[in-house]
Amino acid sequence: MTTNADRNPQRVAIVTGGGSGIGRAVARELAAQGCHVMIVGRTEQTLAETAAGHDSIHPLAVDITAEEAPAVIVATALDRFGRIDILVNNAGIAEPCPLSELSGDSIDRQIAVNLRAPMLLTRQALDALADSRGVVVNVSSAGSLGRRGWPHFSAFGATKVGLDFLTRTWSVELAPLGIRVVAIAPGVIDRGPGGPMGADAEHYNRFLSDIAKRTPLGRVGKTAEIAWWVGELVKPEAAFATGTVLVVDGGLSVT
């Protein structure tokens, strides 16, 4: 006998970088939609903080750059839930510095997290995503779509341009499997105390204030605003959207 649960199974999402910032907000947004959400990150404490009070958010502490990580992540999700419907490639790092001081190790770290890990994890999840006719969401950056230079962000910006290319390419390559691929490109987002990479609070707040003055809407973004758009892009009603990179930056990129 077929039940309503069989016809409408609870969707399962994987969100990398789920311990803070945009990843935390996305995990909670998808949980509010009724998804089981497996959040992936390196730090057990921050993952637990994301999951606190949310029974449908499930932490998995793993370094996504480790060779075994894609297989562990996908196998864990399938063992726990039996399916994967949504993959949000959110984890990212930025190590800003002038080109004259940029090291090979810094370049390698940013490529490993921002570009290599999403490629290998998405590859590992393909069969499961094809079974569910699922969706991949890549979290890019509004700056990667513009014509402006990004002083001190050579490696980070290059990885985000690469992620946009992957979004467009995968959308064509994976469409015959029923898999949609989209990206969201946030502008400057207030990610909470300390900012990204443990930045000094005073300097980070000054940076946010400066960007707010240059943004047509007169402020920086909120993590919940990016999460809302991710939530919309993965809904069944968005089934005709693939290959697009949605900019959410308060108009900064068009000024």
Automatic annotation (TrEMBL):
<dbReference type="InterPro" id="IPR057326">
    <property type="entry name" value="KR_dom"/>
</dbReference>
<keyword id="KW-0560">Oxidoreductase</keyword>
<dbReference type="GO" id="GO:0016491">
    <property type="term" value="F:oxidoreductase activity"/>
</dbReference>
<protein>
    <submittedName>
        <fullName>Ketoreductase</fullName>
    </submittedName>
</protein>
<dbReference type="InterPro" id="IPR002347">
    <property type="entry name" value="SDR_fam"/>
</dbReference>
<feature type="domain" description="Ketoreductase">
    <location>
        <begin position="11"/>
        <end position="159"/>
    </location>
</feature>
<dbReference type="Pfam" id="PF13561">
    <property type="entry name" value="adh_short_C2"/>
</dbReference>
<dbReference type="InterPro" id="IPR036291">
    <property type="entry name" value="NAD(P)-bd_dom_sf"/>
</dbReference>
